[in-house]
């Protein structure tokens, strides 16, 4: 049986499109995000906040030939929406033409919507949220050496994303999210360290146990106590899973169609070339069940694709929306994302590096001296030049073992060289939306004492 509330929302979007056409638009599309969320934060067994939010933002984009404008509103009253359509068309008539602007041809739009298992209808009571947050914080504080707490937070939310266009496309998909985090302090006086852990899932049943999250946060904080500055030298650097995703996240930015079309990426002329070592494959997967960035269609109504963006080290494709695809003389890859107040932009879906065959312990076993990175600070790599410099903390490696904590370190290199020398462990975990296993890169310069 059809969900009448969602069908009525799609009818509302069709009315907006008809109104825009009536005011002179040659084409139009509209997005609507209907979301709600609840979160609680606790500290030392007491509630610090309870937040609830509900949002229903509508974003109308209209075209008058090759001229376009975007107007957003949260008012669903018919008169207000008609006024929005009239204003958008008037704005579009007074902006410069964009030769690459326009909605999808009907032949390009998605015709089937795969079931991605993104929506958990379960409702979590505030009492249960408080209990989960307390359990995580208590487990963290029970770790020997933990002296104080920054608190714990439990949140959950639901969203329905709609898209409709004057080319005949109309669709929606539902998603949900549950998250739990805690952060604690170890040590006292001037010798204190803070660390955290968290989990975030589409389904409540997949969320890690509060006690596991808490223990991990507490143990991380205690292990980081009494850090030293490491030496300044060229050594192998190992990035744990909390930091390794940034190395392929930089690459995702470098293969964005917008960056390629503008020439603002070091990868602009690397299509079909070896940019990673031959053992590396990186996947963009919009169809991952219960994935953080899964979607049945993109922000322009186009079917997304699962692709090996890096196939055995070779760059095979860009992340394209319609505008960047037209500018490059290509077709959209279904990677457009869209907010109510802005135009579509290309973005990766569930983007991850396939794991290697060795454990993290085996990955570092032959390192005589190196740096194991657990946290990073500051900016990342410059995708135009490849220059990479970031602050970091973690542990020093000696004779194949993780030893004492180090902080106030800097890692420097060049992304092109770093990508070519990556070795992955076998511990991939799909946790962030952009994910990689523990990674080793030999020959990086680190600076400390």
Could you please describe the fold and organization of this structure?
The chain is globular and about 70 Å long. It is built from nine helices and 19 strands. The chain has helices at residues 4-22, 78-92, 126-141, 210-223, 241-254, 257-262, 322-328, 360-364, 415-420, and strands spanning 27-43, 46-64, 67-73, 146-165, 170-188, 191-201, 233-239, 282-285, 307-311, 314-315, 336-337, 345-346, 350-353, 369-377, 387-398, 401-414, 422-424, 434-435, 439-447. A six-stranded antiparallel beta sheet has the order 3-2-1-4-5-6. With 449 residues, it is α+β, with helices and mostly antiparallel strands. The model has no long low-confidence stretch (mean pLDDT 95). The protein folds into four domains: 4-34 and 46-108, PmbA/TldD superfamily (PmbA/TldD fold, 2-Layer Sandwich); 126-223, PmbA/TldD fold, CATH 3.30.2290; 233-247 and 355-447, no CATH class; 266-350, no CATH class. β1 (27-43) and β2 form a beta hairpin. The protein starts with a helix and ends with a strand.
Rounded to the nearest angstrom, the distance between the terminal CA atoms is: 67 Å
**Overall SS class:** alpha+beta
Please state the average pLDDT score: 95
- Major β-sheet annotation: 6 strands, antiparallel
Order of helices and strands: HEEEHHEEEHEHHEEEHEEEHEEEHEEE
Choose one word for the global shape. globular
Helix content range: 10-25%
Q: Give me the side-by-side strand order of the main sheet.
A: 3-2-1-4-5-6
Spans with pLDDT under 50 lasting ≥5 residues? none
Rounded to an integer in angstroms, the radius of gyration calculated over CA atoms is 24 Å
The number of distinct structural domains comes to 4
Beta-strand proportion: 35-45%
Number of strands: 19
Number of H- or I-type helical stretches: 9
């Amino acid at each position: 049986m059809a969900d009448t509330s969602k069908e009525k929302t799609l009818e509302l979007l069709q009315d907006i499109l008809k109104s825009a056409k009536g005011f002179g638009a040659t084409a139009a599309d509209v997005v609507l995000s209907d979301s709600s969320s609840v979160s609680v934060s606790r500290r030392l067994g007491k509630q610090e906040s309870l937040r609830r939010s509900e949002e229903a933002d509508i974003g109308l984009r209209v075209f008058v030939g090759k001229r376009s404008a975007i107007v957003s509103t949260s008012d669903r009253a018919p008169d207000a929406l008609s006024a929005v359509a009239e204003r958008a068309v008037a704005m579009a008539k007074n902006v410069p033409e964009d030769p690459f602007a326009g909605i999808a041809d009907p032949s390009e739009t998605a015709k089937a919507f795969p079931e991605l298992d993104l929506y958990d209808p379960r409702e979590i009571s505030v009492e249960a949220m408080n209990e989960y947050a307390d359990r995580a914080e208590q487990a963290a504080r029970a770790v020997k050496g933990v002296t104080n707490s920054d608190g714990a937070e439990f949140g959950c939310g639901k969203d329905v994303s709609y898209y409709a266009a004057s080319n005949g496309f109309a669709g929606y998909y539902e998603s949900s999210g549950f998250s739990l985090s805690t952060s604690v302090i170890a040590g006292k006086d001037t010798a204190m360290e803070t660390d955290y852990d968290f989990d975030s899932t589409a389904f409540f049943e997949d969320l890690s146990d509060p006690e596991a999250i808490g223990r991990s946060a507490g143990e991380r904080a205690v292990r980081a106590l009494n850090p030293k500055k490491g030496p300044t030298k060229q050594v192998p650097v190992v990035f744990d899973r909390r930091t390794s995703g940034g190395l392929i996240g930089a690459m995702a930015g470098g293969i964005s169609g917008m960056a390629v079309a503008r020439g603002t990426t070091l990868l602009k002329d690397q299509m079909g070339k070896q940019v990673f070592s031959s053992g590396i494959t990186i996947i963009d997967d919009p169809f991952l069940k219960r994935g953080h960035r899964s979607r049945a269609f993109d922000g322009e109504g186009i079917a997304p694709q699962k692709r090996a963006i890096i196939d055995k080290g070779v760059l095979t494709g860009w992340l394209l929306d319609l505008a960047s695809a037209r500018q490059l003389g290509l077709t959209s890859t279904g990677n457009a994302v869209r907010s109510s107040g802005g135009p579509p932009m290309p973005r990766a879906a569930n983007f991850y590096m396939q794991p290697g065959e060795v454990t993290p312990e085996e990955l570092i076993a032959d390192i005589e001296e190196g740096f194991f990175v657990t946290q990073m600070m500051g900016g990342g790599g410059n995708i135009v030049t490849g220059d990479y410099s970031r602050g970091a903390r973690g542990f020093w490696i000696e004779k194949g073992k993780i030893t004492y904590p180090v902080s106030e370190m800097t890692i420097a290199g060049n992304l092109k060289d770093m990508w070519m020398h990556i070795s992955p462990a076998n511990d991939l975990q799909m946790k962030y939306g952009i994910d990689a296993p523990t990674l080793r890169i030999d020959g990086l310069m680190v600076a400390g004492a």
